[in-house]
Design brief:
By secondary structure, the chain is mainly α. The protein has two domains: 54 residues, Herpes Virus-1 (2-Layer Sandwich), CATH 3.30.40; 211 residues, Rhomboid-like fold, CATH 1.20.1540.10. Helices cover 61% and strands 3% of the residues. The strands form two sheets. Strands 1-2 form a two-stranded antiparallel sheet. Strands 3-4 form a two-stranded antiparallel ribbon. The chain starts with a helix and ends with a helix.
Length: 294
Protein backbone atom coordinates (compact mmCIF):
# COMPACT_ATOMS: atom_id res chain seq x y z
CA UNK A 1 0.00 0.00 0.00
CA UNK A 2 1.10 3.54 -0.67
CA UNK A 3 0.93 6.29 1.90
CA UNK A 4 -0.54 9.76 1.33
CA UNK A 5 3.00 11.13 1.53
CA UNK A 6 4.07 8.83 -1.30
CA UNK A 7 1.19 9.68 -3.61
CA UNK A 8 1.56 13.39 -2.99
CA UNK A 9 5.21 13.32 -4.05
CA UNK A 10 5.23 13.82 -7.82
CA UNK A 11 8.82 12.55 -8.00
CA UNK A 12 7.41 9.05 -7.57
CA UNK A 13 5.48 9.29 -10.85
CA UNK A 14 6.44 9.64 -14.50
CA UNK A 15 6.74 13.33 -15.39
CA UNK A 16 5.12 12.66 -18.80
CA UNK A 17 2.40 10.35 -17.43
CA UNK A 18 1.47 11.59 -13.93
CA UNK A 19 -0.78 8.59 -13.27
CA UNK A 20 2.04 6.06 -13.72
CA UNK A 21 4.17 5.14 -10.73
CA UNK A 22 7.87 4.58 -11.37
CA UNK A 23 11.20 4.50 -9.56
CA UNK A 24 13.41 4.86 -12.66
CA UNK A 25 15.19 8.15 -13.35
CA UNK A 26 16.45 9.55 -16.63
CA UNK A 27 20.25 9.44 -16.46
CA UNK A 28 20.51 12.98 -17.87
CA UNK A 29 17.75 15.08 -16.27
CA UNK A 30 17.13 12.74 -13.28
CA UNK A 31 13.35 12.97 -13.68
CA UNK A 32 11.15 9.92 -13.08
CA UNK A 33 10.00 8.09 -16.24
CA UNK A 34 7.76 5.10 -16.80
CA UNK A 35 8.73 2.09 -19.01
CA UNK A 36 6.98 3.60 -22.04
CA UNK A 37 9.19 6.69 -21.86
CA UNK A 38 12.47 4.87 -21.34
CA UNK A 39 15.14 4.49 -24.04
CA UNK A 40 18.07 2.30 -23.08
CA UNK A 41 21.38 4.17 -22.89
CA UNK A 42 24.94 2.94 -22.37
CA UNK A 43 24.31 3.36 -18.65
CA UNK A 44 20.71 3.65 -17.42
CA UNK A 45 17.86 5.04 -19.48
CA UNK A 46 17.04 8.36 -21.18
CA UNK A 47 13.70 10.14 -21.41
CA UNK A 48 12.23 11.31 -24.75
CA UNK A 49 13.04 14.98 -24.18
CA UNK A 50 16.69 14.30 -23.37
CA UNK A 51 16.89 11.91 -26.32
CA UNK A 52 15.61 14.66 -28.60
CA UNK A 53 18.14 17.13 -27.19
CA UNK A 54 20.94 14.58 -27.54
CA UNK A 55 20.15 13.97 -31.19
CA UNK A 56 20.04 17.69 -31.89
CA UNK A 57 23.56 17.95 -30.47
CA UNK A 58 24.92 15.16 -32.68
CA UNK A 59 27.63 15.96 -35.17
CA UNK A 60 26.91 15.31 -38.87
CA UNK A 61 29.10 12.20 -38.71
CA UNK A 62 27.21 10.82 -35.71
CA UNK A 63 23.89 11.56 -37.40
CA UNK A 64 24.96 9.68 -40.51
CA UNK A 65 26.15 6.77 -38.38
CA UNK A 66 22.79 6.54 -36.59
CA UNK A 67 20.90 6.54 -39.88
CA UNK A 68 23.19 4.09 -41.66
CA UNK A 69 23.46 1.63 -38.81
CA UNK A 70 19.80 1.54 -37.94
CA UNK A 71 19.97 3.68 -34.83
CA UNK A 72 23.22 2.18 -33.60
CA UNK A 73 25.11 5.44 -33.20
CA UNK A 74 27.95 6.05 -30.80
CA UNK A 75 26.02 6.68 -27.60
CA UNK A 76 22.80 4.73 -28.04
CA UNK A 77 22.65 1.62 -30.11
CA UNK A 78 20.68 -1.34 -31.16
CA UNK A 79 22.43 -3.47 -28.53
CA UNK A 80 21.84 -1.26 -25.47
CA UNK A 81 24.40 -2.09 -22.82
CA UNK A 82 27.56 -3.75 -24.22
CA UNK A 83 26.76 -7.10 -22.60
CA UNK A 84 29.12 -9.11 -24.82
CA UNK A 85 31.99 -6.78 -23.91
CA UNK A 86 31.24 -7.26 -20.22
CA UNK A 87 31.15 -11.05 -20.63
CA UNK A 88 34.44 -11.07 -22.56
CA UNK A 89 36.00 -8.86 -19.90
CA UNK A 90 34.77 -11.12 -17.09
CA UNK A 91 35.83 -14.40 -18.70
CA UNK A 92 39.23 -13.16 -19.88
CA UNK A 93 39.98 -11.42 -16.59
CA UNK A 94 39.04 -14.52 -14.58
CA UNK A 95 41.33 -16.71 -16.68
CA UNK A 96 44.11 -14.12 -16.54
CA UNK A 97 43.93 -13.94 -12.75
CA UNK A 98 43.96 -17.73 -12.46
CA UNK A 99 47.14 -17.70 -14.55
CA UNK A 100 48.79 -15.61 -11.85
CA UNK A 101 48.20 -18.21 -9.14
CA UNK A 102 51.28 -20.24 -8.21
CA UNK A 103 50.98 -23.93 -8.88
CA UNK A 104 48.16 -23.80 -11.43
CA UNK A 105 48.98 -20.70 -13.47
CA UNK A 106 51.59 -22.35 -15.67
CA UNK A 107 49.34 -25.35 -16.27
CA UNK A 108 46.47 -23.13 -17.41
CA UNK A 109 48.74 -21.18 -19.73
CA UNK A 110 50.10 -24.42 -21.17
CA UNK A 111 46.58 -25.66 -21.93
CA UNK A 112 45.41 -22.44 -23.60
CA UNK A 113 48.40 -21.02 -25.50
CA UNK A 114 48.68 -21.39 -29.26
CA UNK A 115 51.58 -22.59 -31.36
CA UNK A 116 51.53 -23.92 -34.90
CA UNK A 117 52.88 -27.29 -33.75
CA UNK A 118 49.40 -28.09 -32.42
CA UNK A 119 48.05 -27.98 -35.96
CA UNK A 120 50.42 -30.52 -37.53
CA UNK A 121 50.65 -33.60 -35.29
CA UNK A 122 52.22 -35.82 -37.96
CA UNK A 123 55.12 -33.40 -38.36
CA UNK A 124 55.61 -32.06 -34.86
CA UNK A 125 54.70 -34.96 -32.59
CA UNK A 126 52.34 -32.69 -30.62
CA UNK A 127 48.61 -33.51 -30.25
CA UNK A 128 46.17 -31.99 -32.73
CA UNK A 129 44.47 -29.16 -30.81
CA UNK A 130 43.22 -26.52 -33.26
CA UNK A 131 40.92 -24.93 -30.66
CA UNK A 132 44.01 -23.27 -29.19
CA UNK A 133 43.73 -20.73 -32.02
CA UNK A 134 40.82 -19.25 -30.05
CA UNK A 135 41.58 -20.26 -26.46
CA UNK A 136 44.85 -18.32 -26.65
CA UNK A 137 42.79 -15.13 -27.04
CA UNK A 138 41.54 -15.57 -23.46
CA UNK A 139 44.95 -16.17 -21.86
CA UNK A 140 47.68 -13.60 -21.13
CA UNK A 141 51.34 -13.42 -20.27
CA UNK A 142 51.06 -11.35 -17.10
CA UNK A 143 49.04 -8.79 -15.21
CA UNK A 144 50.18 -5.77 -17.27
CA UNK A 145 49.45 -7.62 -20.51
CA UNK A 146 45.99 -8.51 -19.23
CA UNK A 147 45.23 -5.03 -17.86
CA UNK A 148 46.20 -3.18 -21.05
CA UNK A 149 44.18 -5.48 -23.28
CA UNK A 150 41.13 -5.35 -21.03
CA UNK A 151 41.27 -1.57 -20.89
CA UNK A 152 41.38 -1.44 -24.68
CA UNK A 153 38.52 -3.96 -24.93
CA UNK A 154 36.37 -1.93 -22.54
CA UNK A 155 36.98 1.32 -24.45
CA UNK A 156 36.43 -0.15 -27.91
CA UNK A 157 33.48 -2.29 -26.86
CA UNK A 158 31.58 0.74 -25.55
CA UNK A 159 31.56 2.09 -29.10
CA UNK A 160 31.48 -0.91 -31.41
CA UNK A 161 29.05 -3.28 -29.70
CA UNK A 162 26.08 -0.86 -29.58
CA UNK A 163 26.85 0.15 -33.16
CA UNK A 164 27.11 -3.35 -34.62
CA UNK A 165 24.85 -5.33 -32.32
CA UNK A 166 25.93 -8.15 -30.07
CA UNK A 167 26.15 -10.99 -32.59
CA UNK A 168 28.11 -9.02 -35.19
CA UNK A 169 30.41 -7.62 -32.51
CA UNK A 170 31.14 -11.09 -31.11
CA UNK A 171 31.76 -12.42 -34.62
CA UNK A 172 34.20 -9.57 -35.26
CA UNK A 173 36.08 -10.24 -32.02
CA UNK A 174 36.40 -14.00 -32.51
CA UNK A 175 37.23 -13.93 -36.22
CA UNK A 176 39.85 -11.22 -35.67
CA UNK A 177 41.37 -13.22 -32.80
CA UNK A 178 41.40 -16.30 -35.03
CA UNK A 179 43.07 -14.24 -37.76
CA UNK A 180 45.81 -13.26 -35.33
CA UNK A 181 46.56 -16.93 -34.65
CA UNK A 182 46.58 -17.68 -38.38
CA UNK A 183 49.14 -14.94 -38.93
CA UNK A 184 51.37 -16.37 -36.19
CA UNK A 185 51.15 -19.84 -37.74
CA UNK A 186 51.97 -18.55 -41.22
CA UNK A 187 54.66 -15.96 -40.46
CA UNK A 188 56.44 -17.56 -37.51
CA UNK A 189 55.18 -21.08 -36.78
CA UNK A 190 57.80 -21.61 -34.08
CA UNK A 191 56.28 -18.86 -31.89
CA UNK A 192 53.94 -19.68 -28.99
CA UNK A 193 51.50 -16.91 -28.17
CA UNK A 194 48.76 -15.86 -25.77
CA UNK A 195 46.69 -12.72 -25.51
CA UNK A 196 43.68 -10.87 -26.86
CA UNK A 197 45.89 -8.45 -28.80
CA UNK A 198 44.93 -9.89 -32.20
CA UNK A 199 41.24 -9.44 -31.42
CA UNK A 200 41.88 -5.96 -29.97
CA UNK A 201 43.73 -4.89 -33.10
CA UNK A 202 40.81 -6.27 -35.09
CA UNK A 203 38.43 -4.03 -33.13
CA UNK A 204 40.66 -0.99 -33.71
CA UNK A 205 40.89 -1.69 -37.44
CA UNK A 206 37.13 -2.22 -37.64
CA UNK A 207 36.48 1.07 -35.87
CA UNK A 208 38.81 2.76 -38.36
CA UNK A 209 36.97 1.26 -41.35
CA UNK A 210 33.47 1.90 -40.03
CA UNK A 211 34.35 5.41 -38.86
CA UNK A 212 35.76 6.23 -42.28
CA UNK A 213 32.65 4.78 -43.90
CA UNK A 214 30.30 7.07 -41.98
CA UNK A 215 32.47 10.14 -42.55
CA UNK A 216 33.92 10.48 -39.05
CA UNK A 217 37.38 11.86 -38.33
CA UNK A 218 39.48 8.71 -37.93
CA UNK A 219 42.92 10.31 -37.74
CA UNK A 220 43.24 9.65 -34.01
CA UNK A 221 42.29 5.99 -34.41
CA UNK A 222 44.80 5.58 -37.23
CA UNK A 223 47.59 7.12 -35.16
CA UNK A 224 46.83 4.89 -32.15
CA UNK A 225 46.70 1.79 -34.37
CA UNK A 226 50.04 2.68 -36.00
CA UNK A 227 51.77 3.41 -32.68
CA UNK A 228 50.57 0.19 -31.07
CA UNK A 229 51.56 -1.86 -34.10
CA UNK A 230 55.04 -0.28 -34.24
CA UNK A 231 55.44 -0.87 -30.50
CA UNK A 232 55.48 -4.61 -31.13
CA UNK A 233 58.69 -4.35 -33.15
CA UNK A 234 60.66 -2.60 -30.40
CA UNK A 235 59.60 -4.59 -27.33
CA UNK A 236 60.65 -8.19 -27.00
CA UNK A 237 58.13 -10.92 -26.33
CA UNK A 238 55.30 -9.29 -28.31
CA UNK A 239 53.83 -11.32 -31.17
CA UNK A 240 53.47 -8.57 -33.76
CA UNK A 241 52.28 -11.25 -36.18
CA UNK A 242 49.06 -11.61 -34.17
CA UNK A 243 48.62 -7.83 -34.21
CA UNK A 244 49.00 -7.76 -37.99
CA UNK A 245 46.69 -10.69 -38.60
CA UNK A 246 44.03 -9.38 -36.25
CA UNK A 247 44.09 -5.91 -37.79
CA UNK A 248 43.85 -7.20 -41.37
CA UNK A 249 41.05 -9.64 -40.59
CA UNK A 250 39.19 -7.10 -38.45
CA UNK A 251 39.31 -4.61 -41.32
CA UNK A 252 37.97 -7.25 -43.73
CA UNK A 253 35.10 -8.13 -41.37
CA UNK A 254 34.27 -4.43 -41.04
CA UNK A 255 34.24 -4.07 -44.83
CA UNK A 256 31.73 -6.93 -45.00
CA UNK A 257 29.55 -5.18 -42.42
CA UNK A 258 29.65 -1.83 -44.22
CA UNK A 259 28.70 -3.42 -47.55
CA UNK A 260 25.86 -5.58 -46.19
CA UNK A 261 24.01 -3.33 -43.76
CA UNK A 262 20.47 -3.79 -45.08
CA UNK A 263 18.22 -6.51 -43.72
CA UNK A 264 17.82 -8.13 -47.14
CA UNK A 265 21.62 -8.48 -47.35
CA UNK A 266 21.89 -10.53 -44.17
CA UNK A 267 22.37 -13.79 -46.09
CA UNK A 268 25.33 -12.33 -47.96
CA UNK A 269 26.79 -10.95 -44.77
CA UNK A 270 26.77 -14.38 -43.13
CA UNK A 271 28.00 -16.06 -46.31
CA UNK A 272 30.92 -13.66 -46.68
CA UNK A 273 31.96 -14.14 -43.06
CA UNK A 274 31.87 -17.91 -43.55
CA UNK A 275 33.98 -17.58 -46.71
CA UNK A 276 36.50 -15.36 -44.89
CA UNK A 277 36.78 -17.84 -42.02
CA UNK A 278 37.17 -20.73 -44.48
CA UNK A 279 39.97 -18.86 -46.26
CA UNK A 280 41.75 -18.43 -42.94
CA UNK A 281 41.47 -22.16 -42.29
CA UNK A 282 42.79 -22.98 -45.76
CA UNK A 283 45.65 -20.50 -45.34
CA UNK A 284 46.69 -22.25 -42.15
CA UNK A 285 46.39 -25.69 -43.72
CA UNK A 286 48.80 -24.86 -46.56
CA UNK A 287 51.62 -23.44 -44.42
CA UNK A 288 54.84 -25.08 -45.65
CA UNK A 289 55.50 -27.91 -43.18
CA UNK A 290 59.23 -27.30 -43.27
CA UNK A 291 58.71 -23.99 -41.49
CA UNK A 292 57.43 -25.81 -38.45
CA UNK A 293 60.45 -28.10 -38.19
CA UNK A 294 62.99 -25.53 -39.29
Amino acid sequence: MTTPEFTSNRDNFCYRHPDRQSFVLCQRCMRTICPECQTQGPVGVICPECMKAQRKAESPAQRRARRQWGGGAMALGRGGKPVVTYVLLAVTSAIGLLQLLPGIGDAITGRLLFAAVYLYPDLSGYPFEPWRMLTSVFAHGGFIHLALNMLALWMLGQILEPMLGRIRYLALYLIAGFGGSVAVAVIDPTTATVGASGAIFGLMAALLIIGRHVGANVTGILVILAINFAFGFFVGGIAWQAHLGGAVVGALVALVFTRTRRREQRFWQIALLIVLTALLVVTTAVVPPLLILG
